[in-house]
Amino acid sequence: MKKTLAFLLTLSMVLTLSLTGCSKKSGRVVNVCGWGENIDPDLITAFEKETGITVNYATAESNETMYALIKQGGADYDVIVPSDYMIAQMIAEDMLAELNFGNIPNFSLIDNQYKNLPYDPENKYSVPYTWGTLGIIYNSAIVEEEIDSWSVLFTDSGRYAGSIGMIGNPRDAIGAALLYLGYSVNTTDEAEIEEAYQLLSDAKSSGAYQGFFMDQLYDKMESGETAICTYYAGDFLSMYMNNSDLRFVVPKEGSNWFVDAMCVLKDAEHKEEAEAWINFLCKTESSLANMDFIWYASPNAEALEQYPAYYEEQNGEPLDPMLYKVMAAPADVLSRCEPYNALPSETQALYSDLWVQLGIE
Amino acid sequence: MKTRTSPLSRLFMALVFLFLYAPIFVLIVFSFNDSKSRTVWQGFTFRWYLELFQDRDIINALSTTLLVSLIATLAATAVGLFAAVGFYNMKKRWRTPLMTVNSIPMTNADIVTGVSLCLLFVAFFAAWQPVADYLNGAQSFITLPVKLHMGFGTLLIAHITFDIPYVILSIMPKLRQMDKNLVDAAQDLGCTWMQAFWKVVLPEIKPGVVSGALIAFTMSVDDFVISYFTAGSSASTLAMVVYGMTKKRISPKINAISTLLFITVLILLVIVNIREARQERALKAWQA
Amino acid sequence: MRNRRSLFALPYVVWMALFVVAPIVLVVVYAFSSADGGFTLENFAHMGDYAVVFSRSFYLALIATLLCLLIGYPLAYVLARETAGVQRVAMMLIMLPMWMNFLLRTYSWMSILEDKGLLNRLFAAVGIIDLGNLINGGLNSLCAALNSGPLAWLNGELGTQLALFAKRSTDMTFFHMINTPGAVVLGMVYNYLPFMVLPIYSVIVKLDNSLLEAARDLGADTLRVFRKVVFPLSLSGVLSGITMVFVPSVSTFAISQLLGGKNQLLLGDLIETQFTGMAYNPYLGSAISLVMMVVVIVCMAVMNRFGEGEEQAVML
Hints:
Radius of gyration of chain B: 24 Å
Oligomer: heterotrimer
Strand content of chain A: 15-25%
CATH superfamily of the largest domain in chain A: Periplasmic binding protein-like II
């Protein structure tokens, strides 16, 4: 017993010392929080080499969990990458810092289409990072028909009972139901939201869903464990690379068009480093490398246009136009998509309550 | 208590151990799988073991885990040892309520311990801000940090807090078993109380101290829930990295590092067990 | 003199006040506060909404605890009768899994239990699934035959009942195990079984052999010795085992998320979502924690009282 302990202690001591010795930290750091598999790790090393600033990269599961962590004071992030509606909410709650665009000259490379969007009307707080659509992903080896409607998640879910992975966050899950019912994803009408919730709740109690998942879907979709799910275009492409039976569709009833943008927290301790990081990611080369890794479309117009050529150069084969269309949704698809707006706090509370309610049932 | 064992009971034991080790076996096998898949075997590789050492997050998490467990174990053992001696010498009227409080972190649900500590830290940080501002304004010798965050420090405090009760609980019985006259005898022979403590008491209760420390260390390494609520964003233990990964996909690198840890501990335990068995046999032979 | 030495405990008493008592006081304060800091009972007003979650969590934790007891007690008992060498190895084997992260072990169960997971592959390979289908098909055709033949007067009632029992009329390709309450219970039993075995074992192994011999000499058979001597004397181990399994089971959130697919919220999930999840509300989270804490304490107190009574009865 005693010897074990002594040995364990010395062993861990030696290990710790040697490990901490390896990861010597330089003076300047920037703490970044993004999504899982949402950045090319080589970019982090490239940035560190270029500027001498160490990047501490953490990931969050969803906008809501990130918000809670920051609100609670548990996080010392400098840069965060929330989605549009969460940015609006954070601006309203005075959680974000105004950016010094003098430090972000590459902002000019961003397509004007993605500037001054409703979540940040004067574009003072955010720099777009990626954009994309929400859709249905299904495994064509299991699902024989061509899916084109949200109904498969709700009223027609019986056919695929037990093989649907529903999305694990309230905004997208209730949003999909609202879209199916023909309502706006930004509705504040309680009756409409309740109706959408009922749809979800009925499908759940009929046993349609395996569960409510987020990034676990990568694994579950690729292995065929889950046949149908709702998820994001960029993530579909990542899954497709590992399982080419998968298909992505933006349902005919319309969907959500989202922008994830980089913001700096109000009490960030490394604001300058944070702006350097944002500027670095806006570069065309960074955007190209990133697109090739995470498959989310970049708001950098030049990069988006050059991407098929870049892909061919990197991979030695031309990019499947179908995939490019999923990545950068064309105008006719975008025309039936609606961005999420920030919801008034009562509606937000309703969403949270209903979400908890769904888990209780 | 010793009687005979039947083959049936051996079979039962084997089944239980199969149940306990099946998932571990799966983990170890798939750490050598030449694909990211968790369920389909696609050939043998050492790739994940090699990549492991290039992964900064995992290496950092491993060092955080070991460092926090190590410091927490040392601190908890020291504090717990003195506290146990203190409790032992205390009047029962005082000892009973204190021992009850002592057992709270062990019997309380981990999530409540974690959440309550998190609330405490957040409240303290909020209260700290004006104090630091005032002190910084009042003097210019040192500048105190105004904004505090959860991180390694809070993680360490939490670990020490839930480790100490285990240390105390394994030292107390040894203290009670000890012959009270030993200390008196030592003092009669001219020792100060301190000397008596070091020379007589400590050797007597050593097994308790050691096993307490071992339990504390194991608890620290195994803990996830309390760390999750008290580490903030800047420090993460291996368990937290794994939890983050269970939300997307578990990298086989995590299987690899766990396999390494597991095998290290296994080898250690085997060595120790063999030595103990040998010592016992030697003792028996000597007694005979 | 003795009192002065009790001062050694002082640093720890201060530590406890700061990091054990103060946080719990804070939970209580939060539970009775609203977001703007005032006193409120609002957080408890809706506790009724969560009654389902409370009862579900306690129900699943109870099943898990019982299963742990049913597996753990015999194991501890059998172990205690083994030779010292076997005991040492077995104890090592019980402790060892704790060194492999519990989330990872639970995640591994996910790979095992999935519809297309390892266990279902094994079943398919060995033919158990076909066997299941065969039996199922046989049952179905038997029902049909019976319903049309000699039992026609039942109006097909039997067939319906049996079909309900067999759950499906078509062939299956897998056993559905993951994302069910059963999988969550399995995860709890798996993770907390050592906490049941260790305390029971440590009590049984210390039992005085002469006591058992005396009982046997007085003519008690093995079963009687167990019932009248071993079990009552090991009750303290059983009680602490129950506590150590029940409390983490009732408050788990990781296990239910991994093996339950977030389909059915448990108390731990509910509290976690209030602090770090989708519905940020630490005040409500504290209130739920407080209620859970109180219910658990009451359960444990009742159980211990019951246990003490039992022990005294034995003494008499």
